[in-house]
Fold each of these.
Amino acid sequence: MSAGDSGKPADHVGGALEAAASKLGVRTSASRSIARMAEPNALTPRQLDERRLIHRDDSVRQQADAFREIRTRLLALGGDQNFVTMIAPVSPGSGGSFVARNLAAAFAFDEAKTALLIDCNPRHAAQHKALGTEPGPGLIDYLDHPAMGMEPIIHRTGIPRLRLIPSGKPRETSGEYFSSFRMRAALDSLRCRYPDRYLFLDGPAVKGSPDARILSDLADFVVLVAGYGRDTPAAIAQAAAIFDPNRFAGVVFDELP
Ligand SMILES: Nc1ncnc2c1ncn2[C@@H]1O[C@H](COP(=O)(O)OP(=O)(O)OP(=O)(O)O)[C@@H](O)[C@H]1O
Ligand SMILES: [Mg+2]
């Protein structure tokens, strides 16, 4: 796997920084850190391997370093404030969920940060299975019934400082949910509550549906995931072009097994 800025959109990254900085400036710096969130059932390296997740052992060092590198680049764009990153694959199965999960884990490696991964792909929900979390309600359930509050949808993962909001009840399309006032309000509240919490939206594939673009309106940064040797340069360029260049952070090439 390798990370790279795409040609044209990368030229606008400076703009992204400015836009994000002005937006972030109005956020209140909320309550104390949750950095030392307890994780009583932390997973072993072997269990992390089974979940296709990076960890601190040498066996996965190259991959872990690649995700750390992406983390560093995003942090450079985001400045001092926490932010929302959407990760979306060019086409179904290009590795978007794999990258979203591991990027969130790379942020959670840092003891001063926490990561919240939100599965925003109700058609192909993957993270609850990949992470083996307890069954329970998720994003769609909350958006349908906001009175339930957000606490029941935030699940422990067995990885310190990493939490998951699963997708919840399956849905064929999700654009109406993503463009709703409720969704925006939910993300704002999740982000503003803890200044050390970074949000990762695992989005649907760009090809074949407008949902990824609609979701990207809620993110500060967009990371596009291309299947290495799978998505053609033309398909990657076409997918990149649908996003607001001010939010576009770059392309990650995922070498699928
Ligand atoms: N670099 C990798 N190393 C090992 N396994 C990987 C890698 N990338 C992806 N996979 C595995 O390939 C499968 C498909 O990847 P993933 O679910 O991330 O794709 P996706 O782009 O999110 O697809 P969807 O369109 O369903 O959202 C998963 O089982 C995932 O764990
Ligand atoms: Mg996916």
Amino acid sequence: MKLAWERAIAATRDVHASADAPICAYLYDLKALAHHAAHLRADLPAHCDLFYAIKANSDLPLLTTLASRLDGFEASSGGEIGWIRQHFPQMPLIFSGPGKLDTELELALAHGATVHVESLHELERLATLARTTKQSASLLLRVNPPLAELATTTLVMGGKPTQFGVAIEHLPTCLERLRQEPTLVLRGFHFHLLSHQLDADNHLQLLSAYLRQTRRWCAQYDLRIEHINVGGGIGVNYRDPERQFDWPRFSRGLAELLTQESRMAGCRGLPRVRFELGRFVSAFCGYYATEVVDIKEAGNQAFAVVRGGTHHFRTPYAQGHSHPFRILPVNNWRRAYHRPSIRARAVTVVGQLCTPKDVLASDITVEQLRVGDLLLFPYAGAYAWHISHHDFLRHPHPRHIYLPAEDPI
Ligand SMILES: Cc1ncc(COP(=O)(O)O)c(C=O)c1O
């Protein structure tokens, strides 16, 4: 995914020019997001739908940009359902995630969400609520089958016993309960077994296994299902940004796979394939901009302390990587005091928190870095601000700037 840096750089310079203190800000390029989402959707074969998992970033400008370009939203809490319905009353909606409360299930039913059921107990509770409120509940069973095709990534939620999904040994009981309960309508199966998938071919193999497994269950339990949800989990390569997940290759492979599968589906027909991607949709449009407030040399190490830190931008800590960044040199130094700087050496970029864990990037060789220079961290549009512990130390929050999807005329 080639980043168009220019708008983010210009916006960072603008923020800096109008600031009277060191800056930190999130910048979201909605034009880039619109373009990216439209391409993701357009590349997918006809038999597929693309939903956005709003947990990755639920800011309204992003959701508004995505609503007309994608097929629906996935929510994982009552709060997310409420947020989506407040602003997008007609948008197709999924409700998934473990530990759903009765109140949240009620909300999901009232708002016409498809519920991804995580356990037998949840199924029983949904049945009771649907009966009591005289509604039918449209659902998918989230399943967690052991699959040989599950290449491991840095975050695996399935293929082994975990808290996610219906354990495979409970599937027959769930299906039996569904047969007895007319208020519950089984639409299909939901698989979300891993995150951070970077390899298109591995992901295709996994989807092929999902489709095969679904076909077997349909034959074994005499099921007719409408769609399978293949989850999110496509990764962003923070460590080697030039080598991102190859979506066009993946989409071409998927088209071939679906052609083969439709031949084998027989009279039951091929279920539609629904994606609920988070990171891969919104990460690329976001940038975290910050300013160097101190440079320290300690032993043979150098540290650049920036305005902000992991309480704003927790992504590198959460994923255990050094986040890539660009230096935007600031040449007009207007302060009355000396300007510390380093040249041609490795630097660790840290934030303002009183913890050694507040590290954004480690041992990165820079040509030159000075106090007052700006750093721009890309891939900050997903699981960034929204997973950060904003109020630790009560530093002010960064500005949030949304660069419009359409340029003003
Ligand atoms: C059930 C489910 N679907 C979709 C997603 C989105 O995953 P990603 O952002 O990796 O695409 C998640 C993330 O945790 C999830 O738990």
